[in-house]
Structure formats: structure tokens, C-alpha cells
Design brief:
heterotrimer; A alpha/beta (120); B alpha/beta (123); C alpha/beta (97); A: alpha/beta; Hypothetical Protein Ychn, Chain: A; 34% helix; globular; C: 97 residues; five-stranded parallel β-sheet; 3 helices
Chain lengths: 120, 123, 97
Amino acid sequence: MNKLVVVITTPPFSNLSVTAINYIETALKLGVELVGVFFYQDGVLHANANAYIASDEFQAIEQWQKLKQKYDLALHLCITAAEKRGMTAESKNSIDELFIVSGLGELVELTSKTERMVQF
Amino acid sequence: MAETIENSLAIINSKAPYSNTAGKDALDIALIFGSFEQAISLFFQGDGVWQLIPAQDGASIFVNDYLKTFAAFEFYDIEGVYVCQKSLQDRNLNEDFHIKGVQLLKQTDFAKKLAEHPHILRF
Amino acid sequence: MTTLHIIRQSAYTTTDFEQCIQSLCMNDIIVFIDDGCYNLQHNLISTIDNSKKIQLNVMKKHALARGIIIDESIINPIEMTALVALTFSNDRVITWQ
């Protein structure tokens, strides 16, 4: 089976995240084994539980939720990058519970398990 | 055909060092891979080559001087440090860097060296 | 051994596409997505070395959304399923963004 890791470095409030999520959903539908998604740089903002996006705009977090319900997704977050952006694992309601608090060591782990790595 | 180094990661540095965190973010990945003894190479292309030029003083503009850490690449077993010759020429830069062991590659060799890595991230 | 190059930025804004062209090897594949679709209008496309036999693709939906006309004699319009397939039919992926 084809193994894939996706590294997301772009923020959720741009149209770029629509593409990233569409790519991941398509891969999952095609039976690709998604070893994990790693959020880094502004990508960590995907996990910001306090973001409010107007209801007529693309809701990235809802899409992650839907995908996670359907497939068993591991959404890893670089905590150092998140803390820099005002998010913390220390208090509740900061990082959405869909996401796993990780560090760059996890990226090493994911790299060792995958055939392909794609950055979005 | 060049052989692929199993599971190795290449990072392309494409941004100048101070006005954004791309260089530092890439460096953090490189050091982690190095400390886990995972093969990693660094490529400098486009404005990324500004990260390598000598006589910089980021501290004077309140940038934590992460470029100094480049001197520790050897310690972290980061062996492949490659710079695109054309990117230097385009910026009227000499082959003069603040660290040792930088390999200068012509365009075609840069592309080939990059293609030896199965995983590539770009910052 | 080929590389899939995903271009996400307009060459009118950044030098990403130019750097991608400099990094092409024989038989590599290019896919323009997101703002990368604007490069269909850019002269850089014609500077790609023909002898390298680079296959050019564009995410059809992304180009049409932007009002970009696809000249199918040069560029192959694809869907997202094809991008996923290309991820695995090539040996590595570089995203230029």
C-alpha cells in the first residue's frame, strides 16, 4: 500500500488549505495509507481552538473533524511552533482536541515510516 | 542513475535569513534529524544563499543569531551542505561562506544531488 | 527516477517557479495548482528545456476558477485524483510555495 506523510506549513485561513484538505481526502478515498499529517510553521494555526471564521467561509477545522471521523487520522502539531503563535497545551480550549501535541521528533518518526512526503 | 539515500531528507532553503523565520524553522528540523542520526542534507537556492554569506550581524537587529549554529553541522553529522552556483552569481556573490564544507554545485548538479533524496521540504 | 514538482505560486510574485525550472531533471513532471496556475500566462514556461521532456499539468479546477485558459496542446488538465496518483508514480515530490 502507498504510504504518505503530509506536512502542512501554510495557515488555515487561506485558500491553500482547501487544496491541502482536498488532496488528503482524495488520497484517503483512493486507499492511500496516510501515516500522518504534521503541522509546522503557520500550519499549526489549523489547531487554534479560538479562531473564528465567518460562517460563509471555508471551515478548515470542520473538514479535519469530518475526515477524522471517517478515517483514523493522526494530526500532529509542532508544539514549539504553536506556542510561538499563542497556543498552549497547558490550558484547555487552546489547541483543538483533534490534534496531537507533538514535536519535531515526530517528524523524524513519520519520515522513517513513509514512502512519500508532500508539503502543503 | 544516482542512488537514493534511504529515507533521507533534503531541505531547500529559499528565503533570506532575517525578515521571516523560514531559515530558523528549517534549521530546527535539520538539527533534530541530525541528533536522531537520520540522513539530512541542506540545499541553499535563490535568496536562501544569503543565509551563508560572511560578516552578518543578526543580533544587532534583534534576531537570535541562529546562523552561528550552522558551524555545528559537522557535530550533528549534517554532511551535505549544497549551494546553487547560479543563485550566487545572480546576486553578485563570491564563493565565500561563514561556514566550512559548503559544496558549490552547477545548476544541473544541484538538480541531480537534490534528486538523490526521497523526501524534500522547502522553506 | 523522476520528481513531481508542485507549483503553488505565481512567478509574477515569487521566484519559486524559476527555481523549480532550474531544478528539473529528465522526465520530471510539473503540476500547477493554486496561484501556480497563473504561470500558464508566464513566459517562463517557454524557457523549459524541451530536451528534458518535462510533462506539464495543471489542476483544471484551480485554473478555471481563476479564469485562466488552458492550452491543451501544451498543458494537460488534471483532477485531484491524478495529483495523488502522480505522487506515487514519481519518486519524490517538491512543493514550490
